[in-house]
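User: Hey, my collaborator sent me this sequence without any context and asked if I could get a structure. I don't really work with proteins. Can you help?
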Amino acid sequence: MFIHPYKSNTKMASAILNSVLLGLVTFLGRVESQKCILNMTSLELQPNFEFNRFMGRWFELSTWFHRVVNKDNKWDDHFRIITSRTLIMADYMTVGRPRNSTGACVKWSGHQLIAGPPSHPARLTWRIKTSRGTFADRALYVVSTDYVNYAITVECIMGATLNANGTCTPDPNVYVLGRKTSLEPDQYANVNNIIITRICHTDLQEFHPTFHQKQCPIPTAGASTVQWSRIYILLFLMANTMMTSTQ
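Assistant: No problem. I've predicted the 3D structure and written it out in structure-token form, which is a compact way to encode the shape of the chain:
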């Protein structure tokens, strides 16, 4: 069977091109899958981190979370309140509106934030109170912050596991936080540059924004204090009544 040389060469070139394209796609796929295998042990963090300056309210601005987390489960109008208790420990509370819910604000409290060791002060520990009343420690590392405008954290939470080799599987969560509900353009540019250079994500386009439309009120301890005061008074009156009846 006679095959025209031009057609033969064309088929060969096409086959070579397809092989090259397949190899390129495979390579890019590997790069894509590997770019977020981030080692938290070698992650460059905020130098000379000051735990006391990290206190206060932080609004969640955008998030990159691992494949297990459904973006529809995110909270909107979401912020964190960190309240110092000692030099190395703070109360940690989050408030927000879960998406696809009634729209009511939800408070998640009872947790602690523990300062990092002197050798790695930006390696914080989020001590989460579970539904069983026990605590589970999770890594919360501060990559960068100026304390007054923004913070970038990498957190091994929500079903993820911090392995002995420093990797967080399946992936860590990355949060962009702000003292306000948005950043200035130059601050966003700075945050984006830090993410590109220090974290294995391309840019902020991969992050899911947190919408701030109707801010949740800041919970106060007043209500619980009043409630406990009433309980103490009731117990006191009951004790007095029992003592009187036995006399």
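In plain terms: The radius of gyration is 26 Å. You can pass these tokens on to your collaborator as they are.
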